[in-house]
Amino acid sequence: MMRKDWETVKLGEFAAHEKGKKPKNQKTEQDEVFKFPYINIEAFEKGIIETYTDGEKCRFCFEDDFLMVWDGSRSGLVGKGMNGALGSTLVRINLPSIENNYAYHFLSSKYLEINTRAKGSGTPHVDPYLLWNYDFSICSHPEQRAIVAKIEELFSDLDKGIADLKKAQDQLKVYRQAVLKKAFEGELTKEWREQQQDLPTADELLEQIKEERQKHYEQQLENWKQAVNAWEENDKEGKKPGKPKAIKSVEQFTRTEIKSMDELPNKWNWVRLGNVFQVFVGSTPSRSKTEYWENGKINWVSSGEVTFSSIFETREKITNEGLNNASTTIHPVGTVMLAMIGEGKTRGQAGILEIEACHNQNTAAIRVSEIGFLPKFLFHYLFLKYERNRSVGSGNNQKALNQGRIMDFDYPLCSVEEQHQIIQEIESRLSVCEKVEESIIESLEKAKALRQSVLKKAFEGTLLTKEEIAACKAAPDYEPASILLEKIKAEKKKK
After folding, report:
1. CATH number attached to the domain at 200-213+249-414
2. Rounded CA gap, 212 and 371, in Å?
3. Is 60 exceeded by the pLDDT of residue 396?
4. Is the CB of residue 357 less than 8 Å from the CB of residue 311?
């Protein structure tokens, strides 16, 4: 509940706002004509000016303004203004007769709600009804300044703690990558390997895998022929069984290519991923067909669920009819999933199926052979190569991986016995690391909640002590909130 000596007004009743426009003319270099910085999201968030404009048909913003991201994934984000031409995805907001930083913190306090309630099925944008109907808390100017000082004092301590937590997080990432690098260079199992006799070589294992894949394909062909015969005997009722796709493969690395790659231990070898794994790309059943989704029981993985973890359930499920009318396949437990699209952290992340599941077109399923591979071995290797794998994506709008690029990935092949040892070594070293990471994430969530709690108290009028409020009322420029509200209304009428 807000304090009784405060007043409220709908934000839209007095806030002045203006959406930006894309300039008619732009240049990458500033000169006497093209002298106005174009303030797009990149400039707003990072201070990076990419282009300049001559000002024709532009709307401008200034340092005293507040800018809000109106369109896109960051919609609702607010920040201090800049001098320049206002970007087409930004809105300039002014709250007359209100202390600048007080207004800034109020708008900042609404970011999470505005962002999660953005409108639009394509590009999300701020819901104007939500924004302009917020009750804005009005108090005296001295109290506004005192509240801002208190917020920034508390946030300063909080930010120091958050910075320390994030630094620890970064150190854990460095440690994890160091462990994984040593693992896949064979260093963690060097002593164990020297004590072993008659370990199969990578080349021997590769031949076994090729034989297994060929036998599996031949069995699929036989099953298909039988299914076709049954379909014909049944007067060709229903859809004709689809012929199994031939085994795709890629050229192996040449000796010259291998020489340029990291050196591997004896009996290991570099292979292309597509020659030892089957790589599948899924699809999405039509959303307009309710019968493909309603009461579905078949697990269906989307790219957002592939987050370097085991997958025990999926947010959505499809029906048998949906499965039969989409180019997706049910994969067994142990299949490694790889996210192929996404500009955030998603693209390049991996997961392991702990359930049978099919998947959408933004994910690849890497079917793991029972003969020569352990799912966790591949999973950890994809973790090591996460940044590299992300960088090979292509596309004008969103960078994306595809089946061909994934099949071209390099892969360090070694015996199953050594894979077991490597997994044990990795997990023994990273188990403590993961517990610390969980603790850090929990602390960061608490810090986020505390920040919101501070802002909530600030705009309810309960952040300051009685003594601090009394000092505000004794200030020379103190005037009750009711008088300030009348001045705001009077100023609005003039405009």
Report:
1. 3.90.220.20
2. 8
3. no
4. yes
The number of beta carbons lying within 10 Å of the beta carbon of residue 97 is 15
Task: Give the C-alpha separation, 71 to 92, whole Å.
Answer: 13
By mean pLDDT, which of 61-70, 105-114, 180-189, 202-211 is the weakest?
202-211
**Residue scoring higher pLDDT (393 or 421):** 421
Which pair of structure tokens corresponds to residue 211?
């034989």
Nearby residues of 465 by Cβ (< 8 Å), 6 or more positions away: none
Fold of 7-140+479-494: Adenine-n6-DNA-methyltransferase TaqI; Chain A, domain 2 (3.90.220)
Give the C-alpha separation, 474 to 434, whole Å. Answer: 54
- Give the helix ranges, DSSP H, for 200-295: 202-233, 255-259
Structure tokens at 437: 């990471």
Q: Start-end ranges of CATH 3.90.220.20 in the chain?
A: 7-140+479-494, 200-213+249-414
Rounded to the nearest 10°, the torsion over CA 352, 354, 359, 363 is: -10
Backbone angles phi, psi at 309, to 5 degrees: -160, 170
Place of tokens 């077991």: 420
One-letter amino acid of 360: N
CA distances from 78 to 12, 87, 251 (A): 16, 14, 51
Distance, CA of 378 to CA of 281 (rounded, Å): 18
Instruction: Please report the DSSP string for 9-25 in residue order.
Output: EEHHHH-EEEE----SS
Question: Cα 462 to the chain's mean position, in Å?
Answer: 36
Q: What is the pTM of this model?
A: 0.73
- Contact in structure between 10 and 135 (CB atoms under 8 Å): yes
pLDDT tens-place string over residues 82-136: 899 999 999 999 888 899 999 999 999 999 999 999 988 778 899 999 999 999 9
Cα atoms in the 13 Å half-sphere on the side-chain side of 424: 8
Q: Which residues of 258-295 are buried (b: 16+ CB within 10 A; e: fewer)?
A: beeeeebbebbbbbbbbbbbbbbbbebbeeeeeebbee
Secondary element (H or E) of residue 192: helix 190-194
